[in-house]
Amino acid sequence: MDQMTMPALRNEIDDLAQAADRIRRANRILVMGCSGGGKSTLSLQIAARFGLAYVSIDRDVLWLPGWKQRDKAEQRAIILSKIAGERWIMDGTNPSTFDIRLPRTDFVIWVRMPRLLCIWGAVSRWVKWIGRTRPEMAPGCREKVDWEFLRFIWTFEEKFTPRVVTGLVEHGPDVPVLQLTSRRQMRRLLDLLAASV
Q1: Which overall architecture, per CATH, does domain 12-194 show?
Q2: What is the DSSP-derived secondary structure letter of residue 71?
Q3: What's the predicted TM-score (pTM) here?
Q4: Model confidence over 15-38: pLDDT tens digits?
Q5: Are 134 and 59 in contact, with CB atoms under 8 Å apart?
Q6: Which of 63, 82, 89, 185 lies at a CB distance of 3.0 to 4.6 Å from 52, suitable for a disulfide?
């Protein structure tokens, strides 16, 4: 599916002040995007600012120690238990679970950074956490970067964007979506949120 045949997002917000106001009032926020784009850092800052429970798809749902994936049925069961909460921010894309997550979501932040920036983010994160497991990752999953992961990042936009857009349109047509496409936008959003009462 190319850009010409991709469905349009009906409820996209491009004004950062308006988005910040919506985020302040949201009880359940989904943050998604490519690895290395900064979605976990953003999610943790918003969670701390507004007292939202932080849920990491990587840490809480997807991975078991040693980079082994949980069974799909177990993943869905965990997500169902997490989204039952009243106030949370969930960090992770996984379009295959949009059908259960989006109906419970008040606001979506799509961290859509350029792929070179995402690769830089992933590599610099690896350097920082080399040999260790970062807090937003499942225990026993030491930080790693390999060619498969870099290829995943490089092709993310091409492979996942059509699935993301289709999922948003199908399962959350009325959920407001903010796309952040630069670090400057992300910093501006955080500044606006920090200034909120």
Answers
A1: 3-Layer(aba) Sandwich (3.40)
A2: P
A3: 0.92
A4: 999 999 999 999 999 999 999 999
A5: no
A6: 89
